[in-house]
Write a structure and sequence with these properties.
The chain is an alpha/beta fold and about 190 residues long. It has one domain: Peptidoglycan recognition protein-like (Lysozyme-like, 3-Layer(aba) Sandwich), CATH 3.40.80. Helices cover about 35% and strands about 15% of the residues. The chain contains six helices and five strands, in the order H-H-E-H-E-E-E-H-E-H-H. Strands 3-2-4-1-5 form a five-stranded mixed sheet. A hairpin with a 5-residue loop joins strand 2 and strand 3. The longest helix has 18 residues. It is globular and about 40 Å long. About 40% of the residues are buried. Belongs to the N-acetylmuramoyl-L-alanine amidase 2 family. This is Peptidoglycan-recognition protein. It holds the Pfam family Amidase_2. InterPro entries: Amidase/PGRP_sf, Amidase_domain, Peptidoglycan_recognition, PGRP, PGRP_domain_met/bac.
Length: about 190
């Protein structure tokens, strides 16, 4: 194998490692828009903020892709965000959708965007029951994030409501994530 081939292989492997899809539905697969600007997130990240979208749920691949596109349109056209605000979005079909992703700063929690991943569950979990498939998908994403170097092994999971005066991620999802092994009850050590 020539030097050029070796160089190309090394670049591809590095890109694959950093991209680390983790089974995520890519922006191209859900027909998302490219961001108008990006800022890179320092990695590995040690904070994951769980939230909900307070939108209708979705249960099929088609409906979830439509819902994610709708959220991105709202964020970019109405809120003037550079991209969809969440790093990842999970649908009722049990799939995780790429938002800002592992590498880019999102716009999900004022004061924490530059150091945390925001993961949003599609629905209103004050009303909706959280599906086991959604929980399992996010847990698999987080495990993959640790394996691929995107998350520290001792990362913390917190609820959006702990850092902002909101109900997010809703009572039912909040109750669920409080049982996760990386849950951080007392956020005083990470508060801005």
């Amino acid at each position: 194998m020539g030097l050029t081939h070796c160089f190309v292989l090394v670049i591809f492997l590095q890109w694959s490692y950093v991209k680390g899809d983790c089974g995520v539905v890519s922006k191209s697969e859900w027909d998302g828009l490219n961001p108008v600007h990006v800022q890179y997130l320092p990695r590995p990240v040690d904070l994951v903020i769980i939230q909900h979208t307070v939108t209708p749920t979705c249960n099929t691949d088609q409906r979830c892709a439509e819902r994610v596109r709708s959220i991105q349109n709202y964020h970019m056209e109405t809120r003037n965000f550079w991209d969809i605000g969440y790093n990842f979005i999970v649908g009722g079909n049990g799939k995780v959708y790429e938002g800002a992703g592992w590498l880019h700063v999102g716009a999900h929690t004022r004061g924490y965007n530059n150091r945390a991943l925001g993961i949003a569950f599609i629905g209103n979990f004050n009303n909706d029951q959280v599906k086991r498939s959604m929980i399992d998908a996010v847990k698999a994403l987080l495990n993959c994030g640790v394996r691929n170097g995107h998350l520290t092994s001792d990362y913390h999971v917190v609820a959006h409501r702990q850092l902002a005066n909101l109900d997010s991620p809703g009572r039912k999802l909040y109750n669920e994530i409080r049982s996760w092994p990386n849950w951080l009850e007392d956020v005083s050590s990470i508060r801005n």
